[in-house]
Design a protein that fits this description.
Blueprint lengths: L1 H7 L7 H8 L3 H18 L3 E4 L1 E6 L25 H13 L4 E6 L5 H17 L5 E5 L5 H9 L4 E3 L7 H6 L9 H14 L2 E4 L2 E2 L6 H14 L3 E2 L2 E2 L18 H18 L4 E2 L3 H6 L3 H8 L3 E2 L6 H4 L19 H9 L4 E3 L7 H8 L4
Helix pairs in contact: 2-9, 3-10, 4-5, 6-8, 10-12
The protein binds iron/sulfur cluster.
Iron/sulfur cluster binds next to loops.
Amino acid sequence: MANSIKELLKQDDFSKDDIVKLLHAEGEEKIMLFQKSAEVKEKYIGKRVWLRGLIEFSNVCSKDCLYCGIRKSNKNPERYDLTDDEILAAAQFAYESGYASIALQSGELESPFITNRIENLLNKVKKFSNGELGITLSVGEQEPEVYKKWFDAGAHRYLLRIEASNPVLYKKIHPDNKKHNFRRRLDCLQSLQDIGYQAGTGVMIGLPFQTTEDLANDLLFMRDFDIDMVGMGPYIEHVDTPLIKYADKLLPLKERFELTLKMIALLRIMMKDINMVASTAQQTIDPEGREKSVEIGANIIMPNITPGKYRDDYNLYANKPGSDNIYDDSVSNLEARLALIDTEIVYGKWGDTKHYEKRRKRGGR
Ligand code: SF4
């Protein structure tokens, strides 16, 4: 077996069967996989990471995803919505700290008020930073004209996780209604690419009902959709969600963590020049989770710069680091931790993907 894995790792791309085999790699085989992905990362990206200051500006959401701690029907979290001034102060902090980019994230709301509010915020961020601060949006499904408005106002990256690329699995983790429609999510991703965003997606790893074949298909989906950025992480169950009833069917957290590392490593080999986030969910399971993800393929870190008093209420999953964060996201702490794996932070640069440039030149979506 070790030999066949060795042979597989000589390839630049994988079939579904190859991926399934590689996701089962253990021991020496797993080490070979991680060595290969680390080499690919060093060659195409370098031993570097870029920062996106994450501002979780509102936990108000109109949707009811069955896995999510801030779903509309959960009455437990205190709902909050940062003021524009608070959002701009956090963006200013990122700018002055040399982060070069921010990511504005919230629950999903669609309305003319939201459209105008975000457009105004984008204009203000662009103005105070002389256009220098890069902006990623992650505010869910919207109409194409809304995406276009925000793109024209300065947002240039958009993260819309598909969460599960198998429509059958998607249906099992979302309510079965018009508001949670797999087709619309795909159409939104397509619109984002068409408009010109660097479009990102991602999945949860270790969901109930999910098979290794599903995970292999998730990677093929990202490759075939030609996405520019990926944020994927382990599924961590939340007690206030309907999916908690399947908690006894889940893989142990440590196995979900390892599976996520393998997914990152495989995607780095398959899509050498995309941006990939080292997720906070990885860090929630293992204090060194982000560094381990960076070592084998991830190149983006999103330090949380949401004002501390709100962080406990953006509780997408259990034990997400909050205001009592034992993980220090300060730049000096990050630098020290990354130095241990011989990786440096690139300041003052957007860190856009070569993949995006090539896709646009090819005239791809
Ligand atoms: S996953 Fe996103 S869209 Fe779904 S309920 Fe949670 S915040 Fe809302």
